[in-house]
Amino acid sequence: MRLALAIVAASLLVALGARAAGEPQHLRIGSKRFTESYILAEIAAAAARASGPEAPDVWHEQGLGGTALVYRALKEGSIDVYPEYTGTIAEAVLHVPGHADVPNLRRALAQEGIGMTDPLGFENTYAIAVPAKLALGRHLETISDLAGEAGMKLGFSHEFLGRSDGFTALAARYGIPTAHVQALDHGLAYEALAHGAIDVTDVYSTDAQIERYKLKVLADDRGFFPSYQAVFLYREDAARRAPAAIRAIAGLSGAIDNRTMIRLNARAEVDARTFASVADEFLRERAGGAAGTAELRPSLWRGIRETVRTEGPRHARLVAISVLLATIVGIPLGVWARWTRNAGRFVLAATSVVQTIPSLALLCFFIPLLGTGTLAALAALFLYALLPITRNTVAGLDAIPPALRESAAALGLGRWAQLFRVELPLASRTILAGIRTSAVISVGTATLAAFIGAGGFGAPISTGLDLDDTRMILEGAIPAAALALAVEGMFALLDRTMIPKGLRLREGMRAGE
Amino acid sequence: MRDEVTDALDRETPPVELSSRTVIVMEGIAKRYGDRLAVAPTTFRVLERTSLALVGPSGCGKSTILRLILGLLTPDAGRVLVGGVVVTPATVISIRRRIGYVIQDGGLFPHLSANENVALLARRLRWSATRIATRVDELAALVRLDSSTLRRYPAELSGGQRQRVGIMRALMLDPELLLLDEPMGALDPIARARLQGDLKRIFSGLGKTVLLVTHSLDEAAYLGDEVALMRDGRVIQRGTLRQFVAAPADPFVREFIEAQRAPCG
Question: Which of residues 27-86 of B touch A (CB under 8 A)?
Answer without folding.
Answer: 67, 70, 72
